[in-house]
Amino acid sequence: MIEGQEDVSWEGWTAIAKSCEENGIPALFRSDHYLSVFPNEGRQSLDAWATISGLAAITSTLRLGTMVSPASFRHPSILAKMIATADQISGGRIEPGIGAGWHQAEHDAFGFPFLPTRDRMKVLEEQLEVIRGLWGKGEFEFHGEYYDLAPVEAEPKPVQDPMPLIMGGNAAPKGAALAARFASEYNTPNPTLEEARERRAAIEGAWSAAGRDPATVRFSVMTGAALGRDETEADDRLRLAREKAGIGDDLDYKFKGSPDRVVEQLAEWRDAGVDRVMIQLLLHDDLEQIEIIGRELAPALK
Question: I need a labelling partner for 275 at 20 to 30 A (CA). Which of 21, 164, 186, 302 fits?
């Protein structure tokens, strides 16, 4: 998982995607932000869905997605069309993540409305209804508080049917209930092991309340990692990541060390109910770390 708003160029994206495919990494996710989320100015940020469509055209096996696209950035008809287009270009390799949005500074900077939390959740709910409706078979119309669509059958549909959709957060009741209605996966950022257990239990409860089999929950974690061929190299990467973020020792990674050590760490998270981990790499130009993950970490997990 790459923080694309932290100065990742198109040349950088193509190098990352190529390295992922060459080294057997199955999926590449990117954030969807317009400004740095750290105390940094002047960092470029390519649009998330334009980037994904571009990468879809030059890759053949890599799955691609967002963590996550704010509902406040785009009209749901536009977002549904962009995702369906990317899925067509990729031949069915897209995994969109959708959320309510949280970074007020970028909303203010670019003129996106930043509503109170309650209202942002209502917007998100209507967006999910519209997106799922436009992806569905037959004619769809919608008349809500925020969006109004005349009857339309949107074509083409995504290649994948059903289309995977990721939602996330801290498993609070409203978000968990929305995920149980619309999502195929729930992702939670930077939890402790105990929080991961608690949040999985909450999501399983929401799945049951919605009439879905809790055994079908796909529960994932997004968190930072610093890997090296030995502990010293991993420590160096953590130091460089902290420097890049500009937040010093406050950057705490759940996964750090040699591949053998990180495998042991990941096993603890598997036992806590985590199905997969999106490893956040702030050192996006460090292709050697991607190679270590693909060549040494991933095979050990299998």
Answer: 21
